[in-house]
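[STRUCTURE TOKENS]
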Amino acid sequence: MHRSVNKKKTLFPLAAVSLSAALLYSGLYGGTAVRAEAAAVPAAVSSPSASAYKAFLQNQYKIELPAAPTKGEFIQDVAKALKLGGSSAEENRFNDLKPEDPAYAAAQALAEKGVLSGGTLQAAVPLTEDAAVYIALKAADLKELAYTYPEAKIKPALRKLGIDYPGNPKLSLQAAQELAAAVDTGLLPAAWHGSFGLGDAASGDFAADLLGSVLSFKGAYKHTIGSVADADIFAKLYQAYQTQDLIQVKELQAVVDEALKQNLITGYNLKDSRYSANFDPKLSLTYGHDDITHAVQLIGLLRSEGLNAKVQLEPKTSAFVYLKEWGEPKQTDSYKVVQIENGNYIAYAKEYDIAFEFDTAEQKAKFQDVIFQYAKKNSEDAKGLIASSWWQPLYYSLTPIDAYKEISNNKLTEGHYYAQTFSLSDKTGEIASGLQKIRPDAKVESYRFWVDEPFYNYLLGGYK
């Protein structure tokens, strides 16, 4: 909701209110083996903890790795994380698998992608640490990098694992290359270097870390521009905002624009799922606004209050009806209007959501206290607030939280874009049904979430 136009306050009496939340990222080696090995040994690459990866896998993919996974279970989870469906291959690439075996489809799909090479799979055997690394490296699209490794680069990398090379009968050149590349890139997190063993059974935590690393390399883990505590977070925030444009998706907008014309909804948002933070719902909040100065000051405010969180800026375009009696609208690169049949306009305004993933649940809960004190207007002449503070700040949680109110969302998706409309929960069915009447093949996802009470009151028609 683009709140810089105060006249729009009359647009939200109640009913099917839907608003502005209603939518990065070589060492040089000499000519001799001695110089190559002596050149900088790559530093250990930091990575999220196993618990963070496990929580992510469960939240985003419904993957729960057992304490001692089999090779087949790991293969199924890799395929699921990579969103690989059934195989189109007519031939069975594995001589010890049958179509009815649980790992069959996943194994065929991974073989098609070059992650598995076919032959004998041994899906029922315990997953070993080295086998997990070999699978993960190919799944992360790192095999070409691995196969550039000469012996001089393999040796120092494997030394970090306590493995001498060459001369180890358990390692072929290809296996050694893959393992070394996994170490240098951080695909195999440093936390596992000291305990790694060729042929050792892999734990669920080990497998989760590798699978999480694969998702990171594929750009499918959490998306963040940084953290509140980062020295350069303000520059990154500005850069992210300045490089975003109005989101325009013709086929998707045709549905929700018609819903606006029919007064089924009073506004909606357009967003791009490629920017979705994918944060842990239990630790995260999403905060919406239209002024980048407000965002910068908000980050500074959180830092001054001792709150730290991962930060992701998610581009958003807010659409609403602009009444003709408001006068001729002024258009800019970030504010466009299209006139409709009754003389009114549909306005499209550039906004943003900031997703925060706090360090602790306690910090998440404290966020509201900070907003109420420093970022919420309670009078026209309010002082001591950060820039462009609203009467009804907009922020919400996908998990229940004390003092927040439950509302609902109806979401339509077109590729990686989606339109969303926020409303009181008792209006969800009516809105979903209306959208499907406009476009019968539309897939409307409805779900509930929890919003700050001032914004809830706004949905009820309250100005303050």
User: Anything to note?
Assistant: The mean pLDDT is 89.
